[in-house]
Amino acid sequence: MTDFLQFIEDNLQITYILILSIFVGIEVIKSIPAVLHTPLMSGANALSGVVIVGAILVMLHADPADYLALALGFVAVVLGVLNVVGGFAVTDRMLQMFKKKK
Fold this sequence. Notes:
Elements: H1 2-10, H2 12-30, H3 34-61, H4 67-97
């Protein structure tokens, strides 16, 4: 726990930027109309793919004894994959709405 607090203390400005970006992201997402949500979600799949690749690269270069970096990388990969799969499922469902019914 002291290591975590020391990390926060050493990287206080980065922590502030992270917290501010979370609040800005929430405000931006809340202001998007529901009509635009699905097309934007399909475009966000590319960003989640970049997150997955970045997390894998971080895990490859992490020290095998650094369990924190490996655990955070694993969580990033799992959440990125869930986001990509969910985005493709929603996009496919949206595209099914535009097909002609038999």
